[in-house]
Write a structure and sequence with these properties.
The complex is a heterodimer of chains A (138) and B (736). Chain A is globular, with a radius of gyration of 14 Å. Chain A contains five helices and five strands; from the N terminus they run βαβαβαβαβα. In chain A, helix 2 runs parallel beside helix 3. The two termini of chain A are 23 Å apart. Chain A is α/β, with parallel strands linked by helices and 138 residues long. Chain A has one domain: Rossmann fold (3-Layer(aba) Sandwich), CATH 3.40.50. In chain B, strand 24 and strand 25 form a beta hairpin. Helices cover 37% and strands 23% of the residues of chain B. Among the domains of chain B are: 105 residues, PAS domain (Beta-Lactamase, 2-Layer Sandwich); 151 residues, Heat Shock Protein 90 (2-Layer Sandwich), CATH 3.30.565.10. In chain B, 34% of the residues are buried. Chain B is built from 15 helices and 27 strands. The chains are: A alpha/beta (138), B alpha+beta (736).
Chain lengths: 138, 736
């Protein structure tokens, strides 16, 4: 099954919150989560091989082993996945991280919201933009 | 023969050891060491033998026996050979003989190629040995050096019966001083008189070291020439006691009215310490045995002097060493160097015999005892810095070298300075007061020659013996070698101590450095490892709140969890902010305060929902500094103003700036609860919160951040406050 959102997150708690928030925003939205870069690489390669394309990719910036930026670079190098919107997602609000992410070809950089209510708001906006507005723009 | 013509300009070079003459109270025959023939003979020998003296020249020694023939056992040749075998004539001389039925002593000494046979009359009727022993022990009763000297003079007078006995001491520059005297009551005292160095020329001093006694029996008799067939070599009379006296010296004695003179050398540590000088005002011969007794007294005195002087010196050294040890202990125990050296019973002052001491250390001056005023000392320190490259500098005539010292010469004519560090100047200076001493010269040393008169008298060293006194100004007591050693020792102790301290500081610094690095790591840990779980706690609590089955009590507890997590999160952020101030680079720019304060106040007012608080902006002046950091300063100060005035009816916060000299000073004033002045110093300390603000939320970090930022900008921060009236915080930034 092609996931609507592919999410790479090593923090299982945050992954759990995200799962909850996404479900709360839209019950039918399909979220696929992997915990590290290596697993993510395999999954991404599988997407390319099976010609399944997620609608949105969320990458945590700080991952053990391969970082979110490494994954972003990998995605941009696979022609099939090149056009998938990628959002970098991190606790850091350091300008250097933001700058690097955009340079590597991220479509957006989001600082992880503090608390569930804020996360819910955030997922709402992301959903509204990338799944409604954005798609219509395309 | 001796053709040397002597006058005052060359008396230093007069060959007084080969005068070619002898004093005529005895006679002399010299015997060649190899062939035992008579090589030199004094002319007056004719008076004692039955043939003219010159007839004896070149004769074998055996002929002498014919002339002293009534002594059946006497054989001079055997006597000489005995001395040669024994390598010494000490046990043989004086050998009693009779000439024309009169008792004589034969005294044998050695010269370069010859034996000197000197014959002199025996005048002493009793054995002087026991008297010498008693004299020696009486003299040694004296415990101090001066008592010893006085005793020696008294005892020598008893032995030889001369009118005046002086102990004469040679000082550093070669001039002499009479340090003890024993005389007939009617004589004018010479005690305390000084004699110029020229009075006893250098070669005479050398002779005094070789030949320990010297008798001039009668200045008014004619000398007897020595005759010889050897035209090329004069007879060396260094060891002869009959040696004739330099005409200059004879004149010198005559001018003083002295008829007979006798001197005994005093040798300490191989150097001529002084003389026992004996004068008689009529001619008086001293018997050989009495001379030898006096010589023995002189030798005993010499070794006693050496011992006593060493004893006195070692007492001084011990005292100084003791001081050094005590100061060293203080340094180890005390925190501050200057206090350790100046605050106790034993201080730097006890390191020398000085009467005052000053120490300049870490740009502070501390003095003990009699010292010039502070300003003069600083001037002196500056002068020493420029004029002395050595670690030790000393003088006993400071004002003659450094003229400004004239005005305090009474306290500091002598200084002993010891540098601890050249740059910055750290130095210790000991002071000795001026000694206005009167030196009584026996004749003006600067004018040795009086009016020219005909003949020898015109060549005399000085005819006038009236006392000529000189007042010595601008001079302190000299610094002793023991004092200089003591100062160097203290210097070593202090320098070692400073180095040790510096080392400790360096180690401490290294520890601090590593602690700071650990703190960095710690901050990072807080940021990433603490905040993430904290977020999880909060988020789970929020998720649980969505559970419809939860009762109100449960909801209330979850709210509290969330609230605590928020507080903790805020605290962590603040600590990170503080750490960041220390580490990040300051980017200087001109900060538009109008817009900065608008942003900051909007943020603060919304954060604290402070709608009822009034903000009054006065004159605002742009600042130079790091914009982010300055924003942080004003955010914290204005937040505090709003927070701590929220309980009053109509809070009023005023912000305004003035330019004062090189600074721009901002004042942030509120009409809130105020700060108890007792806690003034603690207000800016990390995590310190005043008792009266317990009910108001805060971390105790905000003002610490303000202080840190302002200090990193080389600015200042302070406050004025009155309880229940309000506080005004000031921050001053440099205008540059």
């Amino acid at each position: 099954m092609t996931p609507d959102i592919f999410y790479v997150e090593d923090d299982t708690d945050y992954a759990f919150f995200m799962q909850n928030a996404v479900q709360e925003v839209k019950e039918t939205l399909n979220l696929s989560i992997v915990e590290d870069g290596k697993e993510a690489l395999e999954k991404l390669q599988a997407f390319a091989d099976t010609k399944t394309k997620p609608k949105l990719i969320l990458l945590d910036l700080n991952l053990p082993g391969l970082s979110g930026l490494d994954l972003l670079k990998f995605i941009r190098d696979i022609p099939y996945l090149k056009s998938v919107p990628v959002i970098l997602f991190s606790t850091s609000d350091h300008p250097d991280d933001v700058k690097a992410s955009i340079e590597f070809g991220a479509n957006a950089y989001l600082t992880k919201p503090d608390g569930y209510d804020n996360l819910l708001k955030c997922v709402h906006s992301v959903h509204d933009f990338w799944f409604n507005q954005h798609l219509r723009l395309n | 023969m001796n053709k040397f013509s002597v006058d005052l300009t060359n008396c230093d070079k007069e060959p007084i050891h080969i005068p070619g003459k002898i004093q005529s109270h005895g006679f002399l025959i010299a015997i060649n060491k190899i062939d035992f023939t008579i090589t030199y003979i004094s002319e007056n020998t004719s008076d004692y033998v039955s043939t003219p003296a010159k007839n004896l020249l070149n004769q074998p020694i055996s002929v002498l026996s014919n002339h002293f023939s009534h002594e059946p056992d006497f054989n001079i040749e055997n006597l000489l050979k005995l001395g040669v075998i024994r390598k010494s004539f000490d046990a043989i001389s004086p050998y009693p003989i009779a000439i024309n039925e009169k008792p004589f002593y034969l005294i044998i000494n050695t010269s370069v190629n010859d034996w000197l046979l000197e014959f002199e009359p025996v005048s002493l009727q009793y054995d002087i040995q026991s008297l010498v022993g008693r004299s020696a022990s009486a003299m040694l009763q004296g415990k101090s050096v001066s008592a010893l000297l006085k005793g020696a003079a008294t005892e020598v007078k008893k032995l030889i019966g001369y009118d005046r006995i002086m102990i004469y001491k040679f000082l550093d520059d070669g001039h002499g001083e009479v340090v003890a005297e024993e005389r007939e009551d009617h004589l004018e005292p010479f005690f305390g008189l000084h004699y110029p160095a020229t009075d006893i020329p250098k070669q005479a001093r050398e002779l005094y070291k070789l030949s320990l006694t010297r008798l001039i029996a009668d200045v008014n008799t004619d000398d007897s020439p020595i005759i010889t067939f050897n035209e090329t070599t004069a007879l060396d009379l260094t060891n002869g006691s009959l040696r004739a006296v330099s005409p200059i010296h004879i004149q010198y004695l005559k001018n003083m009215g002295v008829y007979s003179s006798f001197s005994i050398s005093l040798i300490a540590n191989g150097e001529l310490w002084g003389l026992i000088a004996c004068h008689n005002y009529s001619s008086k011969f001293i018997d050989y045995k009495a001379r030898e007794g006096a010589k023995l007294i002189g030798e005993i005195l010499s070794s006693a002097l050496e011992y006593r002087q060493e004893e006195e010196n070692s007492e001084t050294v011990e005292l100084f060493n003791n001081t050094a040890n005590v100061l060293s202990e203080h340094l180890n125990r005390d925190k501050y160097l200057i206090e350790a050296l100046t605050n106790y019973d034993k201080t730097l002052l006890n390191v020398t015999h000085g009467t005052g001491v000053a120490i300049v250390f870490e740009n502070e001056l501390k003095t003990i005892g009699e010292v010039p005023d502070d300003e003069s000392i600083w001037d002196l320190v500056a002068w020493l810095k420029d004029n002395s490259d050595e670690s030790i500098y000393y003088t006993h005539r400071l004002s003659e070298i450094f003229h400004p010292a004239k005005k305090y010469k009474d306290i500091a004519s002598g200084i002993l300075a010891c540098s601890l560090s050249k740059d910055p100047v750290e130095i210790m200076i000991w002071f000795k007061p001026e000694q206005i001493s009167t030196v009584n010269w026996a004749g003006n040393p600067d004018k040795p020659v009086t009016a020219f008169v005909d003949g020898l008298a015109s060549l005399s060293p000085r005819k006038s013996f009236e006392t000529w006194s000189e007042v010595v100004n601008n001079t302190s007591e000299k610094w002793m070698p023991e004092e200089i050693t003591s100062v160097l020792r203290i210097r070593e102790i202090i320098v070692a101590h400073i180095n040790k301290k510096a080392n400790e500081i360096r180690l401490l610094n290294e520890k601090l450095q590593s602690a700071y690095e650990e703190l960095d790591t710690f901050s990072y840990t807080i940021s990433h490892d603490l905040r993430t779980p904290l977020t999880s706690i909060k988020t789970y609590a929020e998720l649980m709140l969505k559970n419809k089955t939860l009762d109100d009590k449960g909801k209330n507890m979850l709210d509290r969890i969330i609230n605590s997590a928020n507080k903790m999160n805020f605290l962590i952020k603040e600590i990170l902010n503080l750490a960041r101030v220390g580490r990040s680079e300051i980017v200087f720019e001109t900060v538009n305060m109008q817009s900065l304060l608008a942003e900051v106040s909007a943020e603060v007012w919304s954060a604290f929902k402070a709608d009822n608080a009034e903000l009054i902006l006065g004159q605002l002046v742009d600042l130079k500094g790091d914009k982010t950091m300055i924003a942080q300063v004003f955010t914290n100060l204005i937040s505090n103003a709003v927070k701590y005035s929220s309980m009053v009816k109509s809070p009023k916060i005023e912000v305004s700036a003035v330019i004062d000299g090189g600074e721009t000073i901002y004042a942030i004033k509120d009409n809130g609860m105020g700060i108890d002045n007792r806690y003034y110093d603690r207000v800016f300390e990390l995590f310190k919160r005043m008792e009266n603000v317990k009910d108001i939320e805060g971390t105790g970090v905000g003002l610490a951040i303000v202080k840190r930022i302002v200090e990193r900008h080389n600015g200042r921060v302070w406050f004025e406050s009155k309880l229940h009236v309000g506080s005004t915080f000031y921050v001053a930034f440099k205008n540059k």
